[in-house]
Write the structure tokens for this entry.
Amino acid sequence: MVELKNVSFRYGSEESGAELRNSLTGVDLRVETGEFVLLTGPSGCGKTTVLRLINGLIPHFYPGKVEGSVLIDGRSVTDRELYETAMLVGTVFQNPRSQFYNVDTTGELAFGCENRGLPEEEIYSRIDGTVSRFGIEKLMDRSIFQLSDGEKQKIACASVDVSGADIILLDEPSANLDYEATASLRETIKLWQKQGKTIIAAEHRIAYLWDLVDRALIMSEGRIVRELSGEEKKGLSDSGLAAIGLRGIRQEAPESIELPTVLPGDDAIVLRDFSFSYPGSAAPLFDLPELRLAAGEITAVTGSNGAGKTSFLNCLCGSEKGCRGTLKFGGRLYSAKERQKLCFMVMQDTGNQLFTESVLYEVLISLPKGTSDERGRAMDILAGLDLDGFADRHPQSLSGGQKQRLAIACALASGRRILLLDEPTSGLDHAHMMQTASLLERLRLMGTTIVVVTHDSELIRACCGRRLLFGQLA
């Protein structure tokens, strides 16, 4: 069904004079009809590029130089129009917002079928079937702008299901999903397998699908460096997977990890009458008469998609105008405006907070005024996150995981007393997840208070000493 023959690819455009960057080198891949193949490996190793070649976005959307052949059902992707490939291949992107064309959820599910000119009755029938299978009745006829990132991911998966594509590509599909939603995604994948779909997933969080995949391909620096057959997969433990740079396969709900929110001896950040409502909403998203967070500790904020965790972080850092209540820290009350200088926020979609022309300058502008040897300090921070080799690159040219680490580098450079992170490991491999955990622990020992919204049980186990189950309080 899918075949790559000695494929190499370099991003860039010779006509524009832009630098061509090697992304893939000599990749050979054959995926049979109905097979489920996992692509995994370090952030930036080329997983997403392989998917873009298969769905035709390379070379039709992303410019660059392609060598070798990319075939779908025996025919070259480059010989097909992009809309022709889209009828065969459905993709769930790493950032689901990048694939939406409508402002409402029902319209989004119908969009692909409408473009193909399918009869109205068939479109409604397909939507009804998908909504029932996915259990997303409560998400229908909703504004996409008011969905949580996890809910948006569900809509993205559902839109691919409605399309009826025979080949389904998944690019970090669990990155923004809570434990229950990930379990639901697993059931969806099993359903696609029963339907005979050909599935290729690029993933770091492999626990929920490890026993489902027929093969696992490990990539590094644009090459497939190892293939694990079904039998080889069965013989690998978490320690064995860590040794080859992969995440663990233990499925664990973050809510099952027993940690206190505060301990009697903790200094506390005290929130009182802390509430937030969306404009026009009849009820507040959360309303907290009093909440204490441990100062100088790493607190994991867990809870289901849509519980209000991201809005809670936005309120903490003073960026939500609809937030009410007070924050007391170190014996002082902070207004919303003052909290903007007290806190540094690392967003879930880090691309929205990277503004400059180079990775190095992104860190430089985050350093406090008057920092001595600014360039040396910035390069040291980048080196600590394996980003010093990308200092001159444009931030938007980085992979999702690399952008995540760059945003953390900016947070480290800022020296703020409270660090807020929204799903900081969503695009990170095992090594960089552990590196992030180690960095957060170093910051904690320096006196930084860290609040991290996460669905990542491995991160919680690695560095978090406190946990707040947000859904029970909001």
Notes: The longest helix spans residues 179-194. The chain is about 35% helix and 25% strand. The chain has a mean pLDDT of 90.
